[in-house]
Amino acid sequence: MRWKLSKFWLWVLFLASGLPVLGAGISEYSLKGLFLYNFTKFVTWPDKSFSGAEAPLIIGVLGDDPFGKTLEKIVDGKTFQDRPIRVVHFDGFDPRQAASIGKCQILFICSSENDDIGVILDAIKESSVLTVSEYVDFPAKGGMILLFRKENRLALRINPEAAKKAGLQISSKLLQISEIYQAEDN
Rounded to two decimals, what is the model's pTM? Predict the structure, then answer.
């Protein structure tokens, strides 16, 4: 029981921080936007992932954007280590955009891009980008965080090895409230 209680409080801390309390009427993508913003509190990026000391933290949305203006409203006025947080939209994957996409600190890959997941991840593999998607096989393809529905709630499945390869550190607090993906040994 103690473990379940502490897990509950970790969720409260994760979703709190001055953000709206969960309840009836919050849309799935509002909640997913809150997750994207709150990942900034539980992930450490290497200094090289920012173009300069005052460069913004960039949350990229790749593909047919399901957030509308919700994500911009969530991050409006928020900062990360005194850096502004900015949302950038990419209409769809184009290999010529790989350098721009690689400048994001967080990249949400929309379901419209599911067929190109492997190509997208390969194109940004040298960058320290926290990749997030709803694609069910995302961690197996080398993605870092899968956001999925489980028993009428959102859950996380994290591939810590993929994050480590990108030079990212994910807080143990976030890992505790997530399912951990481990590649099967063949």
Answer: 0.86
